[in-house]
Structures are given as structure tokens and as C-alpha cells.
Design a protein that fits this description.
Elements (H helix, E strand, L loop, with lengths): L3 H12 L3 H15 L3 H5 L5 H15 L1 H13 L6 H10 L2 H15 L3 H8 L2 H11 L1
Helix pairs in contact: 2-4, 4-5, 5-6, 5-7, 8-9
Length: about 130
Amino acid sequence: MSDPVQLGEIVDLLTNRGLKHLAALQEQFYQDQNEELYTRLEEISSHHLRDALVSLMSAASSYHRYLAYELFASMDGKGTDEDSLTKILVTRADKDLSIIKEVFLEMTGRELKDMVHSDTSRDYRKTLLGIIN
């Protein structure tokens, strides 16, 4: 997968399609190759490009699960990635956020509001909890 022409075609294909089309592409690839497309993408040597394309395909296969994972990752470990946390929470519609909260609980065993409460403080915490509730 390191051939520059092939890689350029793959990048062009994956970055110029909508999530529904990418999900269909991923399903067709699995039917044809009997393996997940993202496992092939992980063979790309440039880690930045590989990570971007794998993330894109993850979002295509399960958008809400992808966002729940990104929320968890923004708060997991030392420190909080406030930019990612804020961007995801602020840009989700009420319907999307309710699904993301359910998936977050299923994935982590924790309520999103509890993790946000323990990972943030003061007005920032109050604002995010207002969005979540």
C-alpha cells in the first residue's frame, strides 16, 4: 500500500465521499476481501495519514461510536483535550448527543456527565454539563 499512485487514489477516494458512501464502500470491501478496510489502511507507512484515514473510516462505520470514543479519549489519562471535548459537545444536536451519551455509557461503563464533571472545573464544567443535560 506504499505505492504513491495507489496511495494517492485511495486518499482521493476516501476524502471526496460522504460518510454513507464510505460505509457502503467499507461493506463492499469486506464482502470482496473478507477483511476490514481499516486493517488495510493500517499498512500505510505515514502514521499521520494512516491515523486520519482510519479515523475517517471509523466515523463512516459508526459515527456515534466514533464520537463517543473521541470524547473518552479527550478526557482519558492525564489532562483534558479541551478543544476536542468542546468541539464535539457544542456541535452535536440534541438528538445526536443523546445517542452519543448512550454509546458512551455502553463503551465505558460511565455516564458522560460524570466523566465531564470529574475532568473539568468551574464555569467550563458548568457550561459543558448544561449542554450535556
